[in-house]
Write a structure and sequence with these properties.
Blueprint: H1 3-16, H2 29-39, H3 45-48, H4 50-59, H5 63-66, H6 69-92, H7 94-100, H8 102-111, H9 113-138, H10 142-156, H11 171-188, H12 197-219, H13 222-227, H14 233-237, H15 239-265, H16 271-292, H17 297-307, H18 311-332
């Protein structure tokens, strides 16, 4: 066995082997439920729900299609898959999170590594069944290809051997692919009819606007990433350039979504609240970028941690106004 293989085996052992104090043999239902919700990052669920809704509204031709079993199966695949990624991330990063994100680390240790792994496996079975059933019903075999690529990138984000969250600037396209673009393509292919390039562009724009704001959450993790030598895109770019890139992604994404909606449905009224939410978010991000510019890392991180309290509000506003404008496009068909 080569040194690389030994190293890889050691990494897997470290992640999937219990460490520290053993969890209680019996957990109360309340504790089990609380920890299980924490590792799924249910605080992100209001935004996660928008991920299947936007492409569905852009692709569905009738309300019957929108409320169909195919849409339900696609939604299950998207939501549960994103939660699998969250659980895998909590499991892999439990030692890092013990310093700055103690709630996540406590949840993993409270459940125990074995229970977390079982929950991931059960969730993967649910996704596999739903994806297989949807593929059978639609006859769209490319759903398996999209789902397979999504699974590789999603699990490889935090886990060895890929560790895509530590690949510098390449982390960014993986984030877009895993959280928005591939789920969006999956939902688009759950419906009949040929794909529209405008709809695909809208999904990409939707990803740019959201990741553009979420940059703040990634940037505030700079100290722990540096401590554990995780070369994220934020460490590669530096705080100032990373937040500046967030402003650029948000702005470009809003332009792409607007242009795509105009192509699909014309200048619908739903663009008014959408553009207002985007302008509000751009103002927030630009002010944060100015506050971070030129500051040492510790002072910049302090600014970002203060700003990060408002970031979820902006992602929700942009996310749900994107749903609104997509609903207007659906109604215009």
């Amino acid at each position: 066995m080569t040194d690389n293989r030994v190293s890889l085996a050691a990494q897997w052992t470290e992640i999937f082997t219990a460490d520290g104090s053993a969890p209680p043999e019996k957990l109360s239902v309340q504790s089990w439920l609380r920890y299980s919700l924490i590792i799924r990052r249910v605080e992100f669920l209001p935004l996660t729900v928008t991920v299947p809704l936007v492409p569905a509204l852009l692709m569905a031709r009738t309300m019957r299609e929108l409320l169909s079993l195919d849409m339900l199966l696609a939604t299950i695949v998207v939501v549960v898959s994103i939660q699998i990624g969250n659980m895998a991330n909590c499991l892999a990063d439990r030692r890092m999170d013990a310093i700055y994100k103690t709630r996540l680390s406590r949840a993993v240790y409270g459940l125990g590594v074995g229970r977390v792994i079982r929950q991931i496996v059960i969730a993967m079975v649910i996704v596999g069944v739903a994806e297989g059933w949807l593929t059978y019903r639609t006859g769209h075999l490319d759903l398996l290809l999209i789902g397979g690529l999504w699974a590789v990138l999603g699990m490889g984000y935090s886990l060895p051997p890929l560790h895509l969250n530590g690949r510098g600037i390449w982390q960014l396209p993986v984030l877009h692919a895993v959280y928005f673009v591939l789920p969006g393509l999956f939902v688009l292919r759950a419906f009949e009819g040929s794909l529209s390039w405008a709809a695909i562009a809208a999904i990409c724009g939707f990803s740019l606007t959201n990741i553009g704001i979420i940059v703040i959450s990634h940037a505030e993790d700079f100290p722990e990433d540096e401590l554990y030598s995780v070369m994220t895109y934020v460490r590669t770019l530096g705080l100032t350039r990373a937040v500046g890139l967030g402003v650029a992604m948000l702005t470009l994404g809003a332009i792409v979504v607007t242009a795509s909606i105009v192509v699909l449905a014309g200048p619908v009224w739903g663009l008014v609240p959408y553009l207002a939410a985007c302008l509000f978010a751009v103002r927030f991000m630009a002010r944060t970028a100015r506050a971070v510019r030129g500051k040492p890392v510790d002072e910049g991180v302090a600014v970002l941690r203060a700003s990060s309290k408002l970031a979820p509000l902006h992602t929700l506003l942009v996310g749900w106004t994107t749903v609104v404008v997509a609903a207007f496009a659906f109604a215009a068909r």
